[in-house]
Amino acid sequence: MSLVSIHEAKTHLSRLIQRALDGEGIIIAKRDEALVRLQVVREALPARRFVGLKGLVLSMGDSFDEELTDFAGYGPEGLSKVAEDHPKDPAR
Predict the structure, then answer these.
(1) Deepest in the core among 30, 55, 75, 87, taking most CB within 10 A?
(2) What DSSP designation does 75 have?
(3) How far is CA 8 from CA 1, 4, 52, 74, in A?
(4) How far, in whole angstroms, is CA 53 from its chain's centroid?
């Protein structure tokens, strides 16, 4: 367990955090009176691993490649019509 002053803690906070992460106990003191303990809040998360979709069989309906007519007018060709339908507010 290491005892460090408030000044040292402010000056070397990054180093002290790393020491705490490495398992060292750090106590911050004022005039040699222990005030607070610097400690790890939670354990490090395990490394992520890729979970693939191997063996998964996907099937799509026969209409998958058909044109989507429900969204007509929302593409770039429809933007001018939207602008015409909603003119800018002249008060702005």
Answers:
(1) 30
(2) S
(3) 15, 6, 48, 60
(4) 25
